[in-house]
Amino acid sequence: MCLADIPARLATAILCLAFSAATAMSFEIEERQLYDATPEQARLSVISTADLDVFDPIIRAFQASHPGVAVDYVVTGTTDLMQALYDEGATFDLAISSAMDLQTKLANDGFAQNHTPATPTDLPAWASWRNQLFAFTQEPAVLVVSDKFFAPGTAPQNRDELIAVLRANPERFQGRIGTYDVRQSGFGYLMATQDSRNSDAFWRLMEVMGRLDAKLYCCSGDMIRDVASGKLALAYNVLGSYAASHQKNTGGYQIIEMSDYVNVMSRTVLIPRTAQNIDDARAMLDFLLGLRSRKDLVEATGLPAVDPAALRANPSLRPIRFGPGLLVFLDNLKRQSFLRNWENSLLQN
User: Fold this and answer.
1) Do 172 and 149 contact (CB within 8 A), yes or no?
2) How far apart (Å, rounded) are the C-alpha atoms in residues 349 and 347?
3) For the whole model, what pTM was predicted?
4) Residue 142 backbone dihedrals phi, psi, to 5 degrees
5) For helices 220-229 and 240-249, what crossing angle results, to 10°?
6) Which among 126, 75, 81 has a CA at the least distance from the CA of 103?
7) Banded pLDDT at 18 (limits 50, 70, 90)
8) 168-220, pLDDT tens digit by residue?
């Protein structure tokens, strides 16, 4: 029986499609939607870590310019995407992820196809790698603070100030801090390892958060909701684009780009080696690289396009660059060592 036939569960025909696929995969599908599928249409299969409500305007705009293409859009987590392509050989035409290190490993280990954009782009050198991996957004990792805990103008503006505030008010912030569980979140792990390379303050901050019983999360959206409601006083390393998007509808919090430095992640796209509909995959990749010229889509999605001028204007913004350096913390021994130090700092109870 298909899950959609069981009223007691929140199953849909979309999940039925996922589970009835001929090839059984164990990676978790969080959302799935099939756009405008008719028998005569070509189907473009996309695996992505971008939430459906965020990416929906892009898919519809792409289809408006390519009306003969149906899009099968599958949402999963960063580590699940890696598992699907690297371990399970899942068949997808396009892979979109916020975990730049995992995407780099896919390309480095032969899981991506070459692509030459149909029209020249003025992407900066750091925004592409080996003609296989391409960045199409630049999104800061930010501090989100609750209005119930911080009046305007009182929130810490850098990591040293944040550490000082937390140390001075342990009873106020006990159990009221959120951050990523980097053992589960590929994006969270990327941000944490980049932090550790940028400043010794990161480990001091982790130790303070650990003493205050920091709550660990899988996703930015969950942290943002808990800060907005006042359940959390603050959340560290939240994806800034999601925070800005949620703020339009909910409010209740402030977004802080820390003045000492801001890690800037790029959402990346590649064509997996298992791709079958390569022509339409190339067309959509080119469409994503043109996001800068589509201010309507930037506004609708809340995904900031790659903007070198913004980076030049704010020296605290530090874009994460493609290259072998991103692979360092994916080495098993390095990863185990990092996670051991992280657990010793965060899990003190």
Assistant:
1) yes
2) 6
3) 0.82
4) -125, 170
5) 40
6) 81
7) very low
8) 999 999 999 999 999 988 889 999 999 999 888 999 999 999 999 999 998 88
Radius of gyration over every alpha carbon of the chain, rounded to an integer in angstroms = 20
Residue type, 175: G
Q: Could you tell me the residue ranges of all domains in the chain? A: 7-137+266-315, 139-264+328-346
Q: Where are the alpha helices (DSSP H) in 150-306?
A: 159-168, 170-173, 186-198, 201-211, 220-229, 240-249, 278-289, 295-301
Tell me the C-alpha distance between 100 and 125, whole Å: 15
Q: Are 320 and 264 in contact (CB under 8 A)?
A: yes
Cα→Cα distances 348→85, 208, 209, 211, 339, Å: 35, 10, 10, 6, 14
Residue 59 banded pLDDT, cuts 50, 70, 90: very high
79, 186 contact by CB (below 8 A): yes
Domain 7-137+266-315 homologous superfamily, CATH: Periplasmic binding protein-like II (3.40.190.10)
Please report where in the chains the tokens 């480095």 appear, as a residue.
108
What single letter denotes the amino acid at residue 335? R
CA distance 340 to 336: 6
Neighbours of 201 (CB within 10 A): 16
Tell me which CATH homologous superfamily contains domain 139-264+328-346: Periplasmic binding protein-like II (3.40.190.10)
Assigned token pair, 146: 């609750």
Equal CATH topology for 7-137+266-315 and 139-264+328-346: yes
User: Percent of the chain, pLDDT > 70?
Assistant: 93
CB distance 196 to 188 below 8 Å: no
